[in-house]
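Second opinion, please. Please look over this fold, written as tokens:

===
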Amino acid sequence: MVRVKCLGGRELRGVLRGYDDLVNVVLEDCDEFLRDPMDMQIVTDETRKLGKVVIRGTQVSLISPEDGTEEIANPFLGADDDGED
């Protein structure tokens, strides 16, 4: 299972069945994550089934595995970053 974030904010999850050099992606058993109707910037855990989809590579901004990922601290942000050298 992979999660795909698209330009415009759409987020999809499905089984990766194929891709090409232009990052066109084929997902099977795809679900789209719905947005909060009160705040369209928030993506909820609520989904709708889409089935098999083809996503144009020009719309893909991120592809990541659904399982086995964890957020890490940004190594480029220093804890003692006060702007002075």
